Amino acid sequence: xxxxxxxxxxxxxxxxxxxxxxxxxxxxxxxxxxxxxxxxxxxxxxxxxxxxxxxxxxxxxxxxxxxxxxxxxxxxxxxxxxxxxxxxxxxxxxxxxxxxxxxxxxxxxxxxxxxxxxxxxxxxxxxxxxxxxxxxxxxxxxxxxxxxxxxxxxxxxxxxxxxxxxxxxxxxxxxxxxxxxxxxxxxxxxxxxxxxxxxxxxxxxxxxxxxxxxxxxxxxxxxxxxxxxxxxxxxxxxxxxxxxxxxxxxxxxxxxxxxxxxxxxxxxxxxxxxxxxxxxxxxxxxxxxxxxxxxxxxxxxxxxxxxxxxxxxxxxxxxxxxxxxxxxxxxxxxxxxxxxxxxxxxxxxxxxxxxxxxxxxxxxxxxxxxxxxxxxxxxxxxxxxxxxxxxxxxxxxxxxxxxxxxxxxxxxxxxxxx
Length: 418
Description:
Blueprint: E1 14-18, H1 22-33, E2 38-42, H2 45-52, E3 59-63, H3 71-81, E4 85-90, H4 98-104, E5 108-111, H5 116-199, H6 205-218, H7 220-252, E6 260-262, H8 264-274, H9 276-279, E7 283-288, E8 296-298, H10 300-322, E9 330-339, E10 342-349, H11 379-390, E11 394-400, E12 404-412
Parallel strand pairs: 1-2, 1-3, 3-4, 4-5, 7-9
Antiparallel strand pairs: 6-8, 9-10, 10-12, 11-12
Helix pairs in contact: 2-3, 5-6, 5-7, 7-8, 8-10, 10-11
């Protein structure tokens, strides 16, 4: 089923019924087939997981008390690994609280014996909610991608400059190496001529003098020192361009919007490269990255966008404080640390700080203190949505007017269950 097509009424819904009683499975199979649904059957949680790994399922309707793997464990696995809805059902209604089942990951809860009309209504509600959620996620992705491209647009001139500098000395070195090659080729040709004369026993002082003159003109001692340096500089330049281009490619790609175990330090370093031209002339950037920092389950593209917003904001705050002449550089510090179940990224600056009068508004959509063309006021609003709504984390501010600001991103540390 296309995740953005409202199901059930379209006859496209795919349902997995999980119950250890065959009569219940057959009853629900007939019920759902009457609504033109595709139905799979499993006798316990283990069978259900095997089916989920090979079939695209929209909703799992599962009993709770089953052998081998019960419904509670199945609900947790569906929540952690599969993208589908869950309706739990049980005859032991007094043993389970609705709130506890929902907190485990179920979307709804129904009591046995099942009233078919009630189950269909609940199924429609779950599907409708998931449809609306997918629509919201799609809108969020489109907005986040638009803001990402806006950021790239604002950084484009600086990124072009970052690439142009190594390209310039790559070109200069290439011209030098070409000239050096021609000089060395003249030396080689002269030596070949002398070698041929020597084989014939007819080499004389004049030929030897020509060889020495060719060596002097080529300045071989100079070339033997400078050519390796030029090659080294050229390779470094190529590496720098490759790094910038790869960072741009990684950052600007919309991706699949999926969360995966991510090396946050790599994401930080990647984003620092992208934002280089924004901070390098007004601030020293210090990376204090904790060794052994855990992998974080997140969307690396979205986290990179948040980091870019905060780094650029820090650079602008320093420029605002120290002025465009940049007589004194500020400092941007990025630190990581983890404690208990949280991984934290702290981005601090020595800029202007945030006035108390606007501290409560900085996460509001379209709120900005920047001049026209410098920002739309969407950066921090989207950043908060990404961290809090999409990743279940926290985005906190500690600011002192006139001294600087520190944004702390807290992301939950999870075990990769895939």
